[in-house]
Structures are given as C-alpha cells and as structure tokens.
Design goal:
Helix content: 10-25%
CATH architecture of the largest domain: 3-Layer(aba) Sandwich
CATH class of the largest domain: Alpha Beta
Strand order of the largest sheet: 7-6-10-11-15-14
Largest sheet: 6 strands, mixed
Structural class: alpha/beta
Shape: globular
CATH topology of the largest domain: Rossmann fold
Number of domains: 2
Oligomer: single chain
CATH superfamily of the largest domain: Class I glutamine amidotransferase (GATase) domain
Strand content: 25-35%
Radius of gyration: 19 Å
Distance between the termini: 11 Å
Number of strands: 16
Length: about 280
C-alpha cells in the first residue's frame, strides 16, 4: 500500500491464547503501512485459527521498566512491555524496517494509532475514565456473541469538545452506537465534522450514528450487513461488503463492514489525512 521499493515482509509468530491486542494491532497496523504480513503457528497451517485471549491488567504494574508503554530498540531488536506501548513499538519497528512517516501532525477524535495525536472520548465521561469494551465473535449461534475485552482509557473530556481542533473523526463498532445515536451532543459533533468535510471513518454498526445524524443522504457507503436497511433508508447508496474486508471512500467518508477491513480502513484514512509511509 505504501512506497515504491520492494515490499517489506514481516513474520508474526503466534500461538493459542496469545494476547489479542498484542497480535492483532501490530498485524493490522503494519498491513495498513504497506508491510506484507504472514502469521504462523507451530503445528498449524495457513487458514487454521489461533484463539487469542484478553489479558486485562487490573491496576498492577511491574516496577521495571518505568511504565507499561515502555519500548526499547537495540540494534535490530525492538521490545515492548505490553499493549499500552503499541504506538511507540510500531513506530520503532517501522524505523527498523527502514521506513519513514510524514503527516503525523494531524489530530484525530476517536469515539469509544497511527502516530497522530488521537483523543478518545465518551459522553458523560472524562479524561482518565475507562470504557469497558467487548469482543464480538461468531461461534455457531444465529448472531454474534459478546465477551469482555480490555478496559479502554479515555484521553479527553467529552464536554466542551471543539470539532475545529481535530482533523478527523473515527467511530468504532459494537453496541455503543445504539445509544450514542440517541445523544444530541454526539449527533451535533458528527454533523460538525461532516459539514466541514473533514475525514470521518465509521466501522460496522458505527454507521447507525451517521444515520441518526442525517448525513448519509447521497453518500455511498458500506456497513455490517445487518445495518444495510438503516443505511438505505437514510438515502445512501449501499456498497456490498464482499469480501467482508472491503472498505470504501466517498469524499470525506470512509466506511467498512467488519474488523478484517482494519488495514484498508487505516490506509484510506491516512490517504485522506495526507499521511505517508515510505521505505
């Protein structure tokens, strides 16, 4: 996706009950940066599944290093402590691959990274508060199930937010859009971004918020198939997410249907923001 020289190739060594964040985030982020990724596991073949786990840390931390986000580069070796250090870890790893990133001065607002300044917010919560997140998966039932994920720490207060101080908005999936779509302040904020034609990336059920804001009329977009009726009734042209990792950009709007499309969504959002990775 990035650069004109031969594509860098990275091998991700996996095993059952590896930490979800620490496998999926580097895998998809590096794909978005144009790196070819292969994931392997002993005694398993291409197409087999590794079942990850969520290792929630309940306030405890190791005395050394200084923090859980600590990351060290020593020659060709890049090591990090835990998932809070993903930002520095991925940036350090890209540099070790000979890559350089431009355009990181952008600011992104994320409803509950790529090196930009990213603020995560939630209505009725403040900076430092946590949002419990969920893992949705299909295990043979008629719909997806829901399991506890990590606690997600917010970085900014929702009250008093100014859309003009941000360059883009990201709306993630889950059950949250069902009730965020009923919050008038959320709707007003989304309208501000869309009216200013700033990049807005919406994922899965996040498009329910766009529907409630009345900003999809005349737009082309995709979403999780269960949201198709909402999107069509809102006046948008439905783009079939086939395969499920497809991602679409229409003007300032980037939409995708499910988590397998993360790399493409990040890549298309970076393109709108003018962020480039070269090797």
């Amino acid at each position: 996706m990035a650069g004109s020289k031969p594509q860098r190739r990275v091998l991700l060594l996996c095993g059952d009950y590896m930490e979800e964040y620490e496998a999926m985030v580097p895998f998809q982020a590096l794909l978005a940066y144009g790196v070819s990724m292969d994931a392997v596991c002993p005694r398993k073949k291409a197409g087999d599944i590794c079942r990850p786990a969520v290792h929630q840390m309940s306030g405890a931390h190791w005395v050394e290093p200084e923090s859980l986000s600590h990351c060290i580069t020593d020659g060709n070796l890049v090591t990090g402590v835990a998932y809070p250090g993903h930002l520095e870890f991925i940036q350090s790893f890209l540099k070790a691959l000979g890559g350089s990133i431009t355009g990181l001065e952008k600011r992104i607002l994320f409803y509950v990274s790529n090196g930009c300044h990213v603020d995560t917010v939630c209505p009725k919560k403040k900076s430092g508060d946590t949002c419990p997140i969920a893992i949705h998966d299909f295990e043979g039932d008629q719909s997806y199930n829901e399991k506890p994920g990590h606690d997600f720490t917010l970085t900014a207060d929702f009250e008093g937010l100014d859309a003009s101080s941000y360059d883009a908005l990201v709306i993630p999936r889950g059950r949250a859009p069902e009730y965020l779509a009923l919050d008038g302040k959320v709707i007003a904020l989304v309208k501000d971004f869309m009216e200013a034609k700033k990049p807005v990336a919406s994922i899965y059920h996040g498009q329910q918020i766009l529907v409630a804001a009345g900003v999809l009329k005349g737009k082309k977009c995709t979403a999780y198939p269960a949201v198709k009726l909402d999107v069509v009734l809102a006046g948008a042209t439905w783009l079939e997410p086939d395969p499920i990792d497809r991602c679409f950009t229409d003007g300032n709007l980037v939409t995708r249907a499910a988590w397998p499309g993360h790399p493409e969504l990040i890549f298309q959002l970076m393109a709108l923001l003018g962020i480039k990775v070269t090797f």
